[in-house]
Amino acid sequence: MTHNITLIYGDGIGPEVIASAVKVIEATGISINWDKVIVGEKALEDQGMLLPDYAINSIKTNKVALKGPVTTPVGGGFRSINVQLRQTLDLYANVRPIKSYPVKNCLYDDIDLVIVRENTEDLYLGIEHMVGKDAAESIKIITREASERIIRYAFDLARKENRKKVTLTHKANIMKLSDGLFLESGRKVAKEYEDIEFEDVIIDAMSMKLVQSPRNYDVIVAPNLYGDILSDMAAGLIGGLGLAPGGNIGKEIAIFEAVHGTAPDIANKNIANPTSAILSGIMLLRYIDEVEGAEKIEKALTKTLKSHGTMDLGGSLSTDEFTDEILKEMAF
Ligand code: NAI
Fold first, then answer.
1. Reduced to 3 states, what is the DSSP secondary structure of residue 26?
2. Which of 202, 250, 253, 265 is the most buried (most CB within 10 A)?
3. What whole-number distance in Å separates Cα of residue 57 and Cα of residue 63?
4. Where do the DSSP E strands lie in 124-164?
5. Can 228 be counted among the known catalytic residues?
6. How far is it, in rounded angstroms, from Cα 163 to Cα 156?
7. What is the 193 CA–ligand 1 centroid distance (Å)?
8. Residue 267 CA to ligand 1 centre (angstroms)
9. Distance of alpha carbon 123 from alpha carbon 225, whole angstroms
10. Catalytic: which of 63, 67, 171, 296?
């Protein structure tokens, strides 16, 4: 069977790390027809649109995509293409596993948790306006429907992966209505899953506890903004953004992409760590039930990480050299 998968190289280090992930996935022998599409500034230059219809239609048809990071201008400029894609396709669950691999700068050698981030609302709706010249207002939207849906997703994932606990993080002591609704939804949904432990932790304390005792956490469910910040922080615990994959998952469609962005500081130098993109590819393969291929890559990647590293991991290999080492391991 041939799988049709939409492929988005993205900007900055995107083309380098996605090329590596594609090589490694292809080395499994799984038959894939990559449907390459372009979004973002490059699409604006070529097609006159940041998010061209053909790209959206490709993802809707293939139902699964592997994506590199895409630039979002800071301050002014256009709205994030990533956020637009997630909202347009209703990819409501941003699933970000944080797992220790044998690398020098991993702070704990046995972390294995998943951050489940609500992906469609909160401050990411981008509803902002100026109030006069000297004040700005952003509107935070939290709905019962989206909250219950993501919390249920977190519990279902815990059951599926045989995980024991769901921790919901919030700031309901201050945002009593919006975060209060998220917390209330958690307490309600938790009653449907009595086999899974449930707790809630205020986001500031959560940040400290996650750094001090990450082993205490299994599945963490969070509204959009806290989930985003917490997952970058958690990546720091296992060796950095070079090691943190993710999936944006909806009812029928999923886009897999690393947690990291375009890393303009290291782009086009052949030094980016492709591990996050490769791990995102592994998540994709599991999603399409190509479990054997996923396991083959993860085994080879883990062996490679043990003896080699890219610069961010204190190693000296280029992106291409690191990819070649994984391919050699896979050939055994
Ligand atoms: P970033 O994640 O691109 O980089 C943060 C730091 O981590 C940089 O020092 C970078 O060199 C390092 N880093 C990231 N990935 C790495 C890798 N694979 N190997 C080695 N080092 C790596 O975050 P930043 O600089 O805040 O954002 C840059 C751009 O990326 C912005 O336009 C932002 O909007 C966009 N972005 C896009 C995302 C997406 O498309 N999903 C996600 C996050 C940011």
1. helix
2. 253
3. 9
4. 128-130, 136-138
5. yes
6. 10
7. 36
8. 10
9. 7
10. 171
Give domain 107-238's CATH superfamily. Answer: Isopropylmalate Dehydrogenase (3.40.718.10)
Residue 146 has pLDDT above 90, yes or no: yes
**Of all residues in the chain, what percent carry a pLDDT higher than 90?**
93
What does the DSSP 8-state code read for residue 216? G
**How is 43-81 classified by DSSP, letter by letter?**
HHHHHS-SS-HHHHHHHHHH-EEEE------SSSSSPPH
Rounded-to-integer distance, Cα 54 and Cα 41, Å: 15
Q: Decide if 90 contacts 61 (C-beta within 8 A).
A: no
Nearest to 5 by CA among 25, 29, 20, 28: 25
CA-to-CA distance for 112 and 163, rounded, in angstroms?
10
Strand partners, 8: 67
Nearest CA to ligand 1 atom 43: 261
- Protein residue whose Cα sits closest to atom 6 of ligand 1: 263
Cβ proximity of 106 and 239 under 8 Å: yes
pLDDT in tens, 172-189: 999 999 999 999 999 999
Catalytic, 204? Answer yes
Is 276 a pocket residue for ligand 1 (Cβ < 6 Å)? yes
Would you tell me which CATH number, out of the four given (3.40.50.300, 3.40.50.880, 3.40.718.10, 3.10.20.30), belongs to the domain 1-95+240-332?
A: 3.40.718.10
